[in-house]
Amino acid sequence: MAAKLPVVLCWHMHQPEYRDPRDGVFQQPWTYLHAIKDYVDMAAHLERWPAARAVVNFVPILLEQLEDYVKQIDAYRRDGNVSELRDPLLIGLIRPGDLQGEARVELARALMRAQRERLVERFAPFARLVHATESLLEHEHAADYLSDRLLADLAVWYHLAWSGETLRQDDPLIRGMLEREGGFEADEREALLIRIGELTGSVFGRYRRLADAGQVELSMTPYAHPIMPLLLDLRAGTESEPSDPQPDRAEYPQGEERVRYHIEHGLAVFERFFGRRPAGCWPSEGAISEATLSLLDEYGFEWTASGGQVLNNSLNHARQTLHCPHRVFRHGEQEMKLFFRDDGLSDRIGFDYQNWHADDAVLDLCNHLVSIADTCDHLGAEHPVVPIILDGENAWEHYPDNGFWLLDGLYKRLSDHPALELVTFGDTLQREPESVELKSLVAGSWVYGNLATWIGEPAKNRAWEWLVDARQAYLEAQAGGQWGPEVAARNAQQLAVCEGSDWFWWFGDENPAGAVRDFDRLFRLQLRRLYELIELPAPAALDMPVCEPVAGEGQVEAGGVMRRGRA
């Protein structure tokens, strides 16, 4: 009997910096909402199936924000002071009466930002509240008609809809509230707030215990999720898209120093939360280049990974023939090993199976994997492995029941499949597999195999030019000033936030106009704060948007939060 085909499920957990750098107020709630919906659900699935294994990747700046929410809610729990809370949605949950005028309208709009079919219409009381609120918001004086009770009940149902399915099934508080129409009293809403804090805080310990048990391999992304190939070489995107227009600036000043900061600071943050140094690094957006690999190898990472189309581009560039792409790779003299995701199977989970019956989806995925196993065996490929890598948070709101039945069925079936076995990247390397030498590497990411999602369009290029100018101003201020250790650390972290990938992701007409405006404002807010910290005037250009979103909503899949591996 042939050996079982190793399959790696790698879930990437990521949110960018949402805090206003001046007062710490969260501008978007997605960090804690994904914690109570997706991070706890994924942990619960793995706890339910102890024979299952997975890689779970965390971005350090996400971990810090989760901790911030825990501290806020703990402080409120101790003294009951609502000023301890720095997220308008949490304030609206327990004290909607504290918000007046336009703030009430903004809260009402925020409490309806949820996937309509799966998170709103599933719950009849929530849907009725949303429909009523939409009607009220059409009124010229909407704030006068948004009662405290309406906002309070809307806030409770919003958080119930954003709760993980495992909570809706097993958590007594959540289950009890789901049985109600409304009329939630202040003490009940406060209990829900406290539960949100407990659930968010549980993330660190649950994944740490799963790692201690050997069921989960924890890996990391550099600190603030930068596109490392572009910091190292602003023209790296032309390796796969040579005709794309580029920023007017030729390079990112001292970019290697900044990549080293993201790696080193990211390692320190990761180790503080999980008590271990990660063996692997999922680079931001799977974006790699030869220079990126060299640095990751220098820092002792045992493995990294990227998209399958990056592998195809690299093989084609080197005129290298490979019959079985599901292998472990190496590049040059580096010790670090490379894995490339199966884009087709990863995208089936990320995009396609959401409208399938879960049993059919699990069967389909397993059939594809068995076919890969048969093909690898027929070709005589030694030590094959199939990496399935995708967001661990953004797909599930498009599934019934937050993807519960797909994930439950997938873990159950792959835990005891006769031809397939779940492993981690670390497990794979412990078997000392023969690796395939990749003779060339074309810079790219898990999105279409290129870097065009972050550079090469007018708005994206303009944002890079503003960031390059800010970096140059930073270096001049650093050289001319006397920054002590605390000031230097503060400024370096603020620069890191500005270097995150998410700002560039959202610039472009293909994205929903509201998201474009939100991230455009946040990017300029972070850049302005950087100039304040280095005590230089911010350019007047930062008063204007990077790009003007087109009227209406972009038509990109999944609201723009995910992209397929292949165009």
Name the structural class: alpha/beta
**What is the average per-residue confidence, as pLDDT, rounded to a whole number?**
96
Q: In what range is the share of β-strand residues?
A: 5-15%
**Number of helical runs?**
23
The main pleated sheet reads as: 5 strands, parallel
Radius of gyration: 24 Å
Query: What fraction, in percent, of the residue positions are helical?
Result: 40-55%
Low-pLDDT segments, ≥5 res: none
Spatial shape: globular
What's the number of extended β-strand segments?
10
Distance between the termini: 38 Å
Question: How is the secondary structure organized here?
Answer:
Blueprint: E1 5-13, H1 30-48, E2 54-58, H2 60-79, H3 88-94, H4 102-110, H5 116-120, H6 124-137, H7 142-145, H8 148-161, H9 165-170, H10 172-178, H11 186-212, E3 216-220, H12 228-232, H13 255-274, E4 280-281, H14 290-298, E5 303-306, H15 308-317, E6 329-330, E7 337-340, H16 343-352, H17 358-379, E8 386-391, H18 404-415, E9 420-423, H19 425-430, E10 436-437, H20 458-480, H21 485-498, H22 502-506, H23 513-533
Helix pairs in contact: 1-11, 1-18, 2-11, 2-13, 3-8, 6-8, 17-18, 21-23
